[in-house]
User: Fold these one by one.
Assistant:
Number 1:
Amino acid sequence: MKRRSVLKVVLTSALIAALSVPAVATADSAKTVIEGLPMAARAAPVPAGVSPELAGLIESRQVGTHAETPSSTKQWLALQAEFDAASLQGVARLLEMTGAQFAIENVAGVTTYRVTPTTIDPRWADTVFVHVHGGAFVFNGGEAAMAEAIWMAHGLGVEVVSVDYRRPPLHPFPAATDDVIAVWQQVIKDHDPAKVAMFGTSAGGNLALSTVLQLRDMGTPLPGAIMAGTPAVDLAQTSDSWITLQGLDPLGAREGVIEGTFDIYADGTDRTDPRLSPIYANLGNMPPTVLLTGTRDLLLSDTVRMHRALRAAGVAADLHVYDGQSHGDYMAGFFVNAPETHDAWRELNTFFDLHLE
Amino acid sequence: MKRRSVLKVVLTSALIAALSVPAVATADSAKTVIEGLPMAARAAPVPAGVSPELAGLIESRQVGTHAETPSSTKQWLALQAEFDAASLQGVARLLEMTGAQFAIENVAGVTTYRVTPTTIDPRWADTVFVHVHGGAFVFNGGEAAMAEAIWMAHGLGVEVVSVDYRRPPLHPFPAATDDVIAVWQQVIKDHDPAKVAMFGTSAGGNLALSTVLQLRDMGTPLPGAIMAGTPAVDLAQTSDSWITLQGLDPLGAREGVIEGTFDIYADGTDRTDPRLSPIYANLGNMPPTVLLTGTRDLLLSDTVRMHRALRAAGVAADLHVYDGQSHGDYMAGFFVNAPETHDAWRELNTFFDLHLE
């Protein structure tokens, strides 16, 4: 046996020290503006690790500035209507592409859309998935709610009930989760909850998690599994990737419209309330949860933070990160038939097959 | 039932269109320099999602410039000696912190270090893990090899054999994996291979994967599981996060010394050779593999690409991404007793417990 001792230790990490030679800081001027590590301006070419189909999508991408942030209820309603109408075009295209059908159903007083794909996978024949749409809590209402529901229904061959929950500015927190809870309680009258998945992306990921947390606290039977796609889980603090990846994601920035949507959604409630920001919740006994994100996703940090918190609480949580993808691009790839989208469907099928009874 | 049709579709993604209003491109001048999405200069504050201990580490961080790239064998050897000596200080500190002991053993003609922690976990009492050190293929030889071996031995309570493989500039590819293969063949004479994990970080992750791929092709019994920490899996192409996250990671940049190490390691062999770049390999029948990385890791993209490729090949591969961590920081946190490091040990214990027989 041999043992060494040292008199002087200068390294914070042997590995890192071995790979780089620290130099004096060079960005004192930048540090006077914002404290932090300086990132120089650059251009980010199409990532090496993406399919030609996704590369084409990224190449055509323009990361624009946001609309002006509304300052009145009237302005919010106008922007909401504009966005909903634009999203509805995408929904119409998805219906045409897939041949999926939908029916409008009033469930417990809440408008829902039952989306039926052309083919049902036998393993999902006796169940339905519950969809909570994204759109920063404010956008994608009415039939525009269905985009991700169609994506899931078509990709997995499963019937989906999409919840057209009430939204700000007229209906702030907790109207949205109240509506999802009401629909859930109705759905489980006809279905074994352990065979039902709840899913959503972005604000929809937040709402799916928040709804299930509340169901857990109410003692209501829970979904057998959750998909939280690039979920906005921290409305109180700005996670790192909102800053580090800005410029790469068509989502734009948190400042402005998105921060405004968080504001009118919270409507004065403390944003660290776990019903608003699931990252602050006690996550014990949550159902198995699969999370999706990308390396150019402004919500990469929110997503990985949630994954870690779920795992630390003992939840069976899986994480899939797609190289070069921005916010929700696993769905955007649907429009160009990207292999990454088929990969996401495969992972979701595998996960739900494992965890839904 | 209700169905809509559209005459004109302008959206590439309903979700994204709902959250941002595309504007005209503003960065024509940047595009004349490098084709790609423009990222503006910024400063990245300490991430919201990290522990106070890791925050302290990040706050004290200076992302420096690299040493000059050597242009002769003599210069490479000098830089190698300098780096090895620096890393050895870290190893000495880790030995002091942990009380771990080590013995130098010649195994099949290869120098190895058998690292024994103060306490062995009963579940790992009858096995040993094989460690392949990192350091860009060129650095961290001699006793400096042991840093991660000590980290693993102490964190999991397992005996570790760390391979001091031959390195460039004197011994390019395939000397390193030849050495690891030789050690492996000796180790499995005394241990059930299904109970042995092989692990490494950075270049060590590459070498662990490459070694096991070659063992598979040779028909040699494989390790029961692999840990590939932030592995450099693509020496041919520059994955996206090398560019997008530059400035945040003490690793610095790929250009310069690191690209130079890849060059003297490959020594003229085509870098898309899967023995050099495992991302290009057929990955069928690889053992369960756990991958670790962080949102500020220049090898984030390499890591998630490998995770996806393994999953697509049907391998049981798990991914853990730590918010705000740069290259190998799950180990760097060891020096400040960060909760993230304990979390990594917990995940590794769970993974190996599940997959090692």
Number 2:
Amino acid sequence: MTHVGLPRALGTCYYPEHWPQERWEADARMMAESGLTWVRIGEFAWSRLEPRPGDLQLDWLEKAIEILNEAGLKVVLGTPTATPPRWVVDKHPDMLAVDEQGRPRAFGSRRHYCFSHEGYIEESRRITAILAKRFGASVAAWQTDNEYGCHDTTVSYSDAACRAFQRWLEARYGDIEALNEAWGNVFWSMEYNRFDQIGLPNLTVTDPNPAHALAFRRFSSDQVREFNRVQLEEIRKYSKAPISHNYMGQVTDFDHYALGADMEIATWDSYPLGFLEDRVVAAPEYKQAFARQGDADFQAFHHDLYRAVGRGRWWIMEQQPGPVNWAPHNPAPLPGMVRLWSWEAFAHGAEAVCYFRWRQAPFAQEQMHSGLLRPDSSEAEGLREVRQVANELASAPKVEGNVADVALVFDYDAEWAWAVQPHGQGLSYFGLVLAQYRALRRAGLNIDIVGPSTRDFSDYKAVFAPGLMHLPDDLRTALEEAKCVVVLGPRTAARTIDFEIPTPLPPSLDALQVTVTRVQSLRSDCPVALEGGGNAVGYLETIASEHEPVLEDSAGAPVAVQNGNLMYCAAWLDDEGWDRLISIVAAQVDMVTRSLPVGVRVRRTQSQEFWFNYNAHAVQTEAGEIEPASLIMRTL
Amino acid sequence: MTHVGLPRALGTCYYPEHWPQERWEADARMMAESGLTWVRIGEFAWSRLEPRPGDLQLDWLEKAIEILNEAGLKVVLGTPTATPPRWVVDKHPDMLAVDEQGRPRAFGSRRHYCFSHEGYIEESRRITAILAKRFGASVAAWQTDNEYGCHDTTVSYSDAACRAFQRWLEARYGDIEALNEAWGNVFWSMEYNRFDQIGLPNLTVTDPNPAHALAFRRFSSDQVREFNRVQLEEIRKYSKAPISHNYMGQVTDFDHYALGADMEIATWDSYPLGFLEDRVVAAPEYKQAFARQGDADFQAFHHDLYRAVGRGRWWIMEQQPGPVNWAPHNPAPLPGMVRLWSWEAFAHGAEAVCYFRWRQAPFAQEQMHSGLLRPDSSEAEGLREVRQVANELASAPKVEGNVADVALVFDYDAEWAWAVQPHGQGLSYFGLVLAQYRALRRAGLNIDIVGPSTRDFSDYKAVFAPGLMHLPDDLRTALEEAKCVVVLGPRTAARTIDFEIPTPLPPSLDALQVTVTRVQSLRSDCPVALEGGGNAVGYLETIASEHEPVLEDSAGAPVAVQNGNLMYCAAWLDDEGWDRLISIVAAQVDMVTRSLPVGVRVRRTQSQEFWFNYNAHAVQTEAGEIEPASLIMRTL
Amino acid sequence: MTHVGLPRALGTCYYPEHWPQERWEADARMMAESGLTWVRIGEFAWSRLEPRPGDLQLDWLEKAIEILNEAGLKVVLGTPTATPPRWVVDKHPDMLAVDEQGRPRAFGSRRHYCFSHEGYIEESRRITAILAKRFGASVAAWQTDNEYGCHDTTVSYSDAACRAFQRWLEARYGDIEALNEAWGNVFWSMEYNRFDQIGLPNLTVTDPNPAHALAFRRFSSDQVREFNRVQLEEIRKYSKAPISHNYMGQVTDFDHYALGADMEIATWDSYPLGFLEDRVVAAPEYKQAFARQGDADFQAFHHDLYRAVGRGRWWIMEQQPGPVNWAPHNPAPLPGMVRLWSWEAFAHGAEAVCYFRWRQAPFAQEQMHSGLLRPDSSEAEGLREVRQVANELASAPKVEGNVADVALVFDYDAEWAWAVQPHGQGLSYFGLVLAQYRALRRAGLNIDIVGPSTRDFSDYKAVFAPGLMHLPDDLRTALEEAKCVVVLGPRTAARTIDFEIPTPLPPSLDALQVTVTRVQSLRSDCPVALEGGGNAVGYLETIASEHEPVLEDSAGAPVAVQNGNLMYCAAWLDDEGWDRLISIVAAQVDMVTRSLPVGVRVRRTQSQEFWFNYNAHAVQTEAGEIEPASLIMRTL
Ligand SMILES: [Zn+2]
Ligand SMILES: [Zn+2]
Ligand SMILES: [Zn+2]
């Protein structure tokens, strides 16, 4: 929590290489006048920094940084490795990632590299070192690359990835018999004689061994961290500025905690309207109602997640300022939403909110992505709200320490395990955790998302940890011994580290006697009713336990059981089911809950309480009436 | 009908190679105590039988067979050719099948071989001979390979398949001019100069010539039979035990009659809940109502089909005992269904019902597939019902001769012809025959499914033969001369052997003057009403006939016509239409029909009448009230 | 308008190579007796004209032409280049087109060539020259190739296409810096050093640069024109007969105006029922109501479009005469529709209507496509209606000059630009123009579709030109200076020639001050209501203008503005919106409009007024009651 006391700040993303140098000063002046203090630059500029192999052209960037600094702006410099120029690809033709269908992913957009390609890793090290050496002293922060994993780029099925995977497996398992044994390769005669026989788990006749698939997901995540570390190593040789990476929404293919542990700040790119359209799972009526506002929990979830990834220090590096270009539909935000999104980030502890982008580009892929300025430099709708936020910030508290009664565990490894074996159509770990998060938000609670390496839960009244398919021993111990109420399940500890069903059968807890004896996945039109209201939906375990059920189905079978502080919930629940579960827990730990209406959410910092209304209509709350697409800030 | 008088038996599928040898005896003892008499083993064990090229390790299998035999269990030994180990693929890299998109189907699961690869055929012969020689005397039956065609593996677009197809065509047509003429290759200048110019019918710009596509389907089916025959040849050198293969549900890519003719017993793998989800075509409400019971006709259809394939001798080799792992949703069967499914098989004449699998595997692809035991060896829900069936069998009749008033022709060649040219979206021969089968079942009739080589229909009061697109001359004669009522159409005799529309126009029958003058396919929202009730749906022929119509549309156009025993129905009908058609036929042949409610079905053997209730609620019938998911057995 | 005064004629498509020579005379006689005067032949006959390289067999074709000519029939001879025989592909293995997924499109159907393959271009030149030399004097017209672009064949991702694209770009941009600048390749470091580095815009990680994609679309269109020109060059060396090409419905991948400018006549292939099923975008209820009649505007649109492409001279080369074989569902036309479709073509100015095909082929891909005769040479249903049309033509006026109050601009380049950047799911330029065309038809107006090279609008009272994303300067001037009302927008002039957003912001008109300040795409469930009725749907621009709004949204924001003759409409409207817009314009220019019911349409020539009823029920109109699937012809 090193950020406490910093001023809450605003910023923007700027591409000096897109505009004539004559405009730079006017741009910088206008940014400063608008209340911005941060500018991110450089992250796609490789073809201008090195137009031909070895032909370095860094003066223009130095000039741009100077102009920005002189206007009082601080610079975040991005390494340009998300966009290697054509000549880099010509030099390393096999550096292209390969998709699951076996097709090389061609040059012509961005992120066209395989994390495992050694030649490209060296190019990345080289250009990073050059930038770090030249600009290490003049920039206030760094960003590595751009949006790792975006466009499904974490996983590559290239030859380079295959060879690296074989080495990774050999390092992990030592000898091939150990791997065969660990994966159960005797099944279907999948046993290998040597590591170099192991292929990638794509294009198999039917599903590959889930142990094989999960190992490949873990390997792929490790490759991202290794790739990133090479840049950190070079930057730190020459610069003391903090380093960050801008994560995306719901990109879960690599372990963000692992990368976060290597850097000083986590940032993320928040596009509420695009995300609602292209990744939030919701009924059409819901998407209709929030088409111009976004989902009221999706951004908040990521704020809380990336606060954990950044160990307290986090920003929005790219905030949607108007219509975007890339979603199935790209409406304009309701007036007020840019301000609301900005304040929501601060309410969750952001140090800075930067808008993407300063001026809309008239060319190329994102020409329909709005900026704070239009292509002709006139002011776009969003800029007015940014100015308002800047004014409000002047009299607002600085960044404060975080407060939350509830922790919710989110584990990337569990996400991969569920993806490898969802067991039922549409079931995902991310979906399960988000469903539980939504229910906690409906109850008006502040939530900390915490990673699976957390061992100390003493700050919390309750911990929710659904779906942790593999539960490391020390986490199991920490959860069992926590003094707060801990809600586990479904699917907790269902697999060993190598994706085997353990014996004794899961979850095999010391502090709570419960056994999963059967697992079902349910059609969406076949919910199983709970006694007293709500339903199990999608995923349901049959459990045997000597303890009294906390929830049971209408036939009397236990659905959730508890012993002391430890509770196990054997099902994915519907909204009413989650609400009941949370009420039960809240009553036990003396935690006040609310029942917030759709689209209304509350978030507290140490000194403030924020009420957000995502609806297009005014809503009456205990904090007073909130205007459509607006918020109330109360001092506590 | 060689099976009459055998005791009805139970069994299971067991994988000794998955468990420590110390457990084998206890397992065997428990199987026997549970009332099982058959155990299938070995069919995926190649990597343990031959871990490296030529390194044979057969002792463990001998030990396993000994232990099972000593416990009083009879062994079915499977050849392990569905799962060639990695080293086999390394030796023959081009043995992998190639999918329709041109991608090799990689190692890492099962069935990763092309039936046309000569190197692999020899590997298959070699390992089969080795097993037959060593175990020919100690096993009670054989199974070749496993589930031919499962995972869409009958058809391969590999180079090996292409070369074999060219040879197959040359053998069939002799010279290239004959092929060009037969296929009408003058159309679109598709004429070839030599057989080695002929490619496979995938990835063409628009549809390939249907004659080309159909020839490739026939070739692909022949390759399965040839592959299987190599194993039969080796086994029979060393063993007198009967040989079987375990077919799947609705895998129609190869001619099961052809394989069946080469072996003593047909078996199949029955997964009612998985099949309902992933292959039965039905409204969501129907799938919801039967999600935990399965479709009330789908298994019965296959029982009747495989009875024909086995020329009277058939088993269930794999019976679902609880939730499976591979369907879009995997619920648990309603209590009672494992018993119901088992008895339904016996009612249709099964000699044995074996449950898949004895103990749930804790690892690899099928770890979520339930067994009779859980991974920790505790008893799963299904085992209780298996014990009940075993008890009931003790006092039940033995396997009896079959009785049926009605024959329904099912022809794999017609299935391929319709697939090559469905003419309308969603139309399939399988769907047409199943629709007619369902209607006959609603009428409470016992049905024999018969193959297209049937010439003697004297056992039957009525024969239904819809959709036989190519009608061989002698089958045509047999049907025209049958003494019972024969219902043909739609699409009967619509094509020559080489997929040409014949002149005179179809169906061109001697005993019934009717001509199809036009063919339509209909949108699902554009049914054509029949006078008196019911509709033509999907597929409708305009026919000209001098005979009185049996059914006509509301505009007075004939839809079905009859002369003497021979009837032609020119349309795919809806349920009401089929029911009317069957009533008309039943009245003519003095056949008593019922009108059974949804989910209730009747089946008679020589001495017993079985009433099955697939519903989740009790149903009142003439045989009395049947409990949910239960049955009534009456002695006749 | 060179066609005025020609007799309206009928014809058919005939394949003498499919039938024994003995039938040819009887066929020719029967055609003539049925009232046909034109016969198209030869377009798929390469394998019979040249069965082996250089082995020319032209005598049979000469004989066929003789027989047809002797029966009084005029022949259109097609060049056979849509179906190169197998040996041509063996000679040029890399002539196959490559699909967007990178897969060669195999031999075995038709159109299996890449327009950019130089070897194949020479084969095409060679066979065309041979035919032109031999038959240049004996045929009355020519057709080049067959249905360019059908089966998605305009665009090929082959190596040949890539190299040709690089040359095309070099010719267009001269040096690589100019291209980088024009495309904005600085964005994401997509800058090239040399033209030979530029790949095709497929399989990129995320969207390619839209400038890149659009250039490739333009190049691909140019390649079709170049391919066609080679044939024109050869034919004109030896023949004075007019040359045509048979275009398809809604194939918009190449610029038909460009090809049309090179030839004397435009023809197209009209399959109303197939098109309704497989390309018309409409609600299921609409498709159900018109399943046997087709869409009441789709054919008319193409009649008007191809009249423009043919600069007044156009035919239907293939008219659906009964059920087709290739749509998702293939019902029979309602009795009367073949006549209706034929007369509708004449009402729009067709010189000839030819039916596809004379006799149904009993073999190969189109065996289920009905002809005027059945495969057994009996007369099919359609022929009766053709005879009726022939009789009616005897006393009908000849082809007349066209009359229309309204012009609607259709621009292929705009279609590609929208396809490259639809901005919202389901939005297309074709859809926008068709929606406006439908509204003009509902108003009972005669419409001329005109190309983007039109500069003289003096014949019209109103011009509609929606969606012209790039507006060339001289067209802009012509539209601004036109004396009639000109309705532009949405998206007019939104891009420079190189797909950049221009400054000043679009549409930047001299005669109307309006600026698009923001662009949105809308979910289909999020329409924006207009004040007074109707909605903006799908696509909506925010505009700033000093002029009074003609339409505004319910919040008072302008949606359409006008100054003098020039109007800009900033949205895609729903039916009510378009109707209101047209009413406003009609009132200004004193143009009488009707409000025609669904399925009823009117079309006038100089001396006749036609009323068409596409409905399956009779409709009362001011011209009297029209029978179902019928028409009324009134002399003016
Ligand atoms: Zn971004
Ligand atoms: Zn199986
Ligand atoms: Zn055609």
